[in-house]
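Reviewer 2 asked us to include a model.

Predict the structure of this chain.
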Amino acid sequence: HLAVCFFDIYINEYELSDSSEHQKFVSLVTLLLAAKSEDVDDKIPSIKDLLFAVDLSDELGIDLRFQSNYTEEEVRKSFDSYASLYCKIEFLIFEAIHFNTIRPTPVNFIQAFQNILVTPDDLKDVAIVETMSDLKYLANEFVKQLLDTLLYNIEFNLFLPSKVAAAIMVTARKMMGIKDFWNKQLEFHLRSTYSEIFPIGSTFIAKKTAEAFLVDIAIDE
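Predicted model (structure tokens):
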């Protein structure tokens, strides 16, 4: 989600070339930059890791995913070009975001309020689960489905990330059939009113996310 945020800002500043491989490469750079921003070392891929993710032969002359097809000198020169291109794109992204990588996404807010997503009192309303563990798992699956919707629907960018996160939590509760899907506890912790998040929740429902997810569950069963 952070990478998509960076990508959206970047393409507002610079026009991507028509090359699909170049577009993929920019996407990979935003992913790597986002991983660096989260500062979780074991999840940060190296530049070499990216060599095996996309074919850049149109730009670099050779496909570095198949290094055995080329001489050591050809590989070295192409890798140098690849690294140079990476650094250039990374700098342009940094410029586009004004060197500010601290950009909260709805995911950050949902993680912060994960413990109030469902409560033991909600068990009585969800007939398909019997334990609190199962209820939390089901709720998280609905949340994940709604979060995925954000990645390919730009209209959610019109709302604050905190409000989108609040709407996701409430919409997930409503989709699960929880009668008290909005209450004073949620209003207090999420610092939102129902009138503020209603338009966002309506947008989720309009995307028919609920129906699509219920079909997925039926297929899995």
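The CA atoms of residues 45 and 132 lie 36 Å apart. DSSP finds eleven helices and no strands in the chain. We have added this to the supplementary material.
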